[in-house]
Amino acid sequence: MFPTVSHFLKYLLGIDLPLPFNTFGVFVALAFVAGYWAFSEELKRKEALGILHAIKKKVTIGNPATTTELILNGLFGFIIGYKILYALLNYSLFVSDAQQVLMSTKGNIFGGIILAALFAYWDYKEKDKHKLAKPKDIEVTVHPYQLMSNLIVWAAIWGFLGAKFFDNLEYWDDFVQHPIERLLSFSGLTFYGGLICGGAAVLYIARKNGIKILHMLDVGGPGMMLAYAVGRIGCHMAGDGDWGIPNLHPKPFTWLPDWLWSYSYPNNVVNEGQPIPGCVGKFCHELIPSVYPTPLYEVIICLILFAFLWKIRDKIKAPGLMFGIYMILNGIERFCIELIRVNSKYHVFGLSFTQAEMISTFLVIGGIALSAYALRNKNKLA
């Protein structure tokens, strides 16, 4: 396993290069890149077909930088400089525990002041360069795909908050015992929480810019499936705890690699399992007995499902149908994986189920309802 990028580089190239990047975080970033690409391609395609349209907006040019803008840029620069210089001066600590450095109140005042001044000065000079004696209003054309930068930022912010919120609901007892640690931790993220809250933010911004909700949902179906698959690569490579239950069964096929059937997640990032003999360092545990590598199963399944959605997107004409299909496929995939995955269970009226099983069930039901609605009203919704 590769808890950090440094572990991966050492395994791949044999070089020991201390870097403050954890593997899971890198793949989360790559998941957003993958989603950005898929969303943008779909927005361009739907605009070319005349389904979506560019909008006109009025913007004012020639204004100098305002006091509020200078203060906000300076504050942003101060936070970055405050942390960056401290991290560089304490690089060993930053590499060993970047989260502790970033989430603590520790920093370097001098670095904060320098970058605050630079950021405010840069904003002032940029606005001054284009300042007009008399500011004027102009009309600009905004194409749907040009909204992606704004959409991806808000999806990331609200997706992270939603993922943390749903994760703390799922592990409520642990949250009650360690509220501060769980709130400030970058680990412990629930996919469906991120999907619901991040998706809501995207729909809100899209609707404000003239994109109908059903069309935006259809745009997101393939992209979310791809992003999920890429993110799960990070879960598997880091060993972040999203693995399966112990797998003591013999392989059904001799040609099947051992690591694809049952895996011990050595050097996992959450330090679960038993100590590895002779291992020295921060990540020295592995699972005994080995478990189903469920993140890897989800990577394979979701890449196949993405390819399927991408293939049929030209044939889908009813608004909402693509997302309905995505909901059904995503719900079935996750529900099946939950059967062999480690997770916290709720116990209600004699029933035992996980949070993901409950949400995936609603997804399948909702997907069927949405698909039926889309097909029944395809002429009205177009």
TrEMBL record:
Q: According to its UniProt record, which protein family does this protein belong to?
A: Belongs to the Lgt family.
**What name has this protein been given in UniProt?**
Prolipoprotein diacylglyceryl transferase
A biological process (GO) annotation for this entry? Answer: lipoprotein biosynthetic process
Is Zinc there in the keyword field? no
Q: What is the species of this protein?
A: Pedobacter changchengzhani
Q: What GO MF annotations does this protein's record show?
A: phosphatidylglycerol-prolipoprotein diacylglyceryl transferase activity
Q: Which UniProt keywords apply?
A: Cell membrane, Lipoprotein, Membrane, Transferase, Transmembrane, Transmembrane helix
Does this UniProt record's set of keywords contain Transmembrane?
Answer: yes
